[in-house]
Amino acid sequence: MIVPFEHILILAGLLFFIGMGGLLAWRANLIMMLVSIEVMLNAVMLVFVTGSARWGNAEGQFFAIFIMALTSAEVSLALAMVVYLHRRKHTVNTDMFNELKG
Amino acid sequence: MIEQTIFYILAAVAVIGTILAITEKHPVHAIMYLVTSLFSMAVIFFLLMAPLVAAFEVILYAGAIMVLFLFVIMMLDLGHPEKGMSPGWRIWWPALLLSTISIVSLVMVIVSHRTEIAEPRAALSIREVARHLFQEHGLAVELVSLQLLFALVGALYLGKQPTGRDAK
After folding, report:
1. Does A75 reach chain B within 8 Å, measured CB to CB?
2. Residue span of the structural domain in which B136 resides
3. Where in the sequence is the domain holding A71, given as residue range(s)?
4. ipTM of the complex, rounded to two decimals
5. What is the pLDDT of residues B120-153, one digit of tens each?
6. Is residue A89 within 8 angstroms of chain B, CB to CB?
7. Distance CA A68, CA B140 (A)
8. Residue A82 sits in a domain of what CATH number?
């Protein structure tokens, strides 16, 4: 380890909570919500790689690679859904999708 | 010593790039900032002895996923997203408050459990990582491939143009 373990954990926590703040603030815009989720998943990957380097086994890197595959699946589905919703309402504002409201 | 300096510089670049990406009004600019942040994260992964993850970060994250975002934003014809749509202060302050509370509590927990600096370990070679991955976690690789297939089918179904009697 080139730097203390805690510093990398704090960096990952900062990135994760910046992403969380962005997700909360941009809750009216579908595309910016997806961007914030990307930031959060990237911070989680940093934690796994740090664990892998700290304890010297490869499982953390596997989890990082699996998270990457999961993210690509999630993003492709979510963006297909954004295109579908935009085709219906011509907007990406989440407040406009309220047909299920009783 | 030089590696530590590079790590802290890259950490600053990643955090600042992410903050700019989150606060930017225009989605295309936000994604450009995020690509910068992801490149510095890739170099951090390389410093943490994970060259395979670093390469995948550049190829998959900064290359494929962000380009997918850009294509979708270009396809959608959002008009002028920088006018309106951006959250004002009334929406920002609860998010900032909650994030700050979470960050401060996390930092307090981490600092109170100080551990000694771990001794440097030998880096795993890519050959070794690949052998572990495919010999011991073959089922997980198959599950991930199934997941990607399902995502492909779902994206094809959702992206299909309505034809015939489906069209309104």
Report:
1. yes
2. 124-160
3. 5-91
4. 0.89
5. 677 778 888 888 889 988 999 999 999 999 999 9
6. no
7. 13
8. 1.10.287.3510
